[in-house]
Amino acid sequence: MNIELNGKNIQTEHKSAFALRDSLNKNAIIILNGFILEKDLQINSGDSLVIIEKGKMPSSDELEATMVSRHTPKVHQKVKNSKVAIAGLGGLGSNIAVMLARIGVGELLLIDFDIVEPSNLNRQSYYIKHLGMNKTDALKEQLKEINPFIKIITKNIKIDESNLKELFASYDIICEAFDKADQKAMLINGILQNFPDKKIVSGSGMAGYDSSNKISTKKALKNLFICGDLEAEARVGMGLMAPRVTICAAHQANMILRLILDIYDV
User: Which residues of the chain have pLDDT under 70?
Assistant: First the structure.
């Protein structure tokens, strides 16, 4: 029968997916028509199969086939074609970037002017080997190990009113991930005033170790979405810790995904 295997048309006499896989590489996963198989199934003429060796870096096409199998084709294509800008690469921004890279967002703009310090390691997505590096460089290095096939643009710069328009002109979805309230206000107000049609996903209130259930996503304005509990700020006796910061980051990443998929309710 004629099938498509790893993007090429071939003839095979094997009647099942596992039989075909085992003839090539038993230490592999097999994807049949966009679905990763956990049990053997019959294959038919015209089926599309992808075989990927475990523990080996897949090619771009193989990794994409895996992501399609997890996301479904229509969702994956929208994510792949999307562009997102992340302002601030601390506890929120670094974790958001990792999540967006994992789902295959096609282009990420990463903006920060800081370096990785020991105090960052309790909640930010950096390692000891990154200490002293620019956060933009350290995060790009990390993301390339997760998904080397997405486009990553870095800007090692402090965002202010003078460069805001130039930095975000070509991005429809902007993630605000700053630490300080005045920076958050500057970015949000600047985007709303200069680019009223762009979508902003912001974080506010994720300090301490209060209930996870207090963190939520709210639609504040037509194109402004705020994630967090809107209350818990870092102060004496109430520090920033990985669990709640990461929960808030996940809310932001999921809202960004929903906007990519044209879903605007929260």
Answer: 236
